[in-house]
Design brief:
Number of domains: 1
CATH architecture: 3-Layer(aba) Sandwich
Order of helices and strands: HHHHH
CATH topology: Rossmann fold
Number of helices: 5
CATH superfamily: Phosphofructokinase domain
Number of strands: 0
Helix content: 40-55%
Length: 118
């Protein structure tokens, strides 16, 4: 930073006094991730917007599923973080959710088929 200030003084971009006042640089970082996978934050920027959009889609799919008596599988973004999938499942009362933090057991297909026949 200091070398950049010195260069600005050298080329006449700022005065030496301005460079002295700006000798320290404070940086603030904001995490933007819909995955909500950053430690130390309650919710990252983008997560709430993504969840809101997912719930709009779930509402639209639910209407179709009920009127046609169908079951739908919904996949959401999240890479290696199941936050959006889990919160969506809780918010809409899903019967089943797969998240990377807790992989399904080997016989998950049998459990799912039994649940669907209930």
């Amino acid at each position: 930073w200091r070398s950049l200030l010195a260069e600005l003084v050298k080329v006449g971009g700022i005065t030496a006094e301005e460079a002295k006042k700006s000798s320290y640089l404070n940086i603030v970082g904001m995490v933007g991730s819909i995955d909500n996978d950053f430690c130390g934050t309650d919710m990252t920027i983008g997560t709430d917007s993504a969840l809101h959009r997912i719930m709009e889609i779930v509402d639209a799919i639910t209407t179709t599923a009920q009127s046609h008596q169908r079951t739908f599988v919904l996949e959401v973004m999240g890479r290696h973080c199941g936050y959006l999938a889990l919160i969506t499942a809780l918010a809409c009362g899903a019967d089943w959710v797969f998240i990377p933090e807790s992989p399904p057991e080997d016989d998950w297909e049998d459990h799912l088929c039994r649940r669907l026949t209930e």
